[in-house]
Amino acid sequence: MRKILIIGGTSESNRLADSLSNHFITILSLQGNTEKPRLGNYSSRIGGFGGIKGLKDYLSNELIDAVVDASHPYSRQISYNVLAATKDLNIKLHQLHRPAWKRGPSDSWFEASSFAEASLIANNLPRNSRIFLTIGKKNLEIFEKSHNWMMIRTIDKYQKFISKGKKYIVGRGPFCVSSELIYMRNNKITHLVTRNSGSTETYAKIYACRILNIPVIMIGRENDDTAKESSSIDAIKANLLVHFGLNK
């Protein structure tokens, strides 16, 4: 059977691994940022590759026939490395694109081009502001010195910095609108700071802010590639089956 390496980090990557496992030897690669990642009935590996050279060595040594980049939209370095490595080795590459959320007519968004800019906007909010921060773990320290009260949600427990006025909660999507409304109301949230992951599993917080008229500080994607080959799990599966002559 052909070997497919899936660069994971999204819920779509898990679903894709499940979908392909009946036709290919599927390997889901995760960076290891989450303590207890979701895993299914397929092979997996956890950890980095060691840059482009390390990835090329892995692809060659493991006799990988094709790669699907289904990494998180904010993991730009791994996408760059995958593109370079597969091009050098002439290995088939598919890219699973997750479209960004779009602002609705009744949404109040402050667009930020970076995590640092979002932190600056948050620091200039009124002193009585209460912020709901959902940006993952990687860039939390940028918000460490914020003078405003914050409720910080991550998938795993994360208390690398503990300071007055910071509340930590854990949660893994999919989230529902009703629970997000309860969190925001009970904690008197006035602003949401989040990144535009485009995930359907975490969109409930955006909808809740719309209902409660809560402004959102939305961190945009850097150099977002909206022209990726496919945004559909089914399309990638079909393309791989055709490419390897398994669609008959």
Provide an overview of this structure.
The protein is an alpha/beta fold. The protein folds into two domains: 3-98 and 224-243, NAD(P)-binding Rossmann-like Domain (Rossmann fold), CATH 3.40.50.720; 109-219, NAD(P)-binding Rossmann-like Domain (Rossmann fold, 3-Layer(aba) Sandwich), CATH 3.40.50. The protein has helices at 11-20, 51-61, 76-89, 115-123, 177-186, 204-212, 233-243, and strands spanning 3-7, 25-30, 43-46, 66-69, 92-95, 109-112, 130-134, 149-154, 166-170, 191-195, 216-219. It has a six-stranded parallel beta sheet, with helices on both faces. Strands 3-2-1-4-5 form a five-stranded parallel beta sheet, with helices on both faces. Helix 2 (51-61) packs across helix 3 and helix 5 crosses helix 6 (204-212). The mean pLDDT is 90.
Q: How far from one another are the termini? A: 16 Å
Q: How many DSSP helices? A: 7
Tell me the β content: 15-25%
CATH class membership of the largest domain: Alpha Beta
Mean pLDDT: 90
> Can you tell me the number of structural domains?
2
Instruction: Please give the CATH architecture of the largest domain.
Output: 3-Layer(aba) Sandwich
Molecular shape: elongated
CATH superfamily of the largest domain: NAD(P)-binding Rossmann-like Domain
Tell me about the largest β-sheet.
Answer: 6 strands, parallel
Extended strand count? 11
Helix content: 25-40%
Q: Structural class of the secondary elements?
A: alpha/beta
Largest sheet, order of strands side by side? Answer: 6-11-10-7-8-9
- State Rg: 20 Å
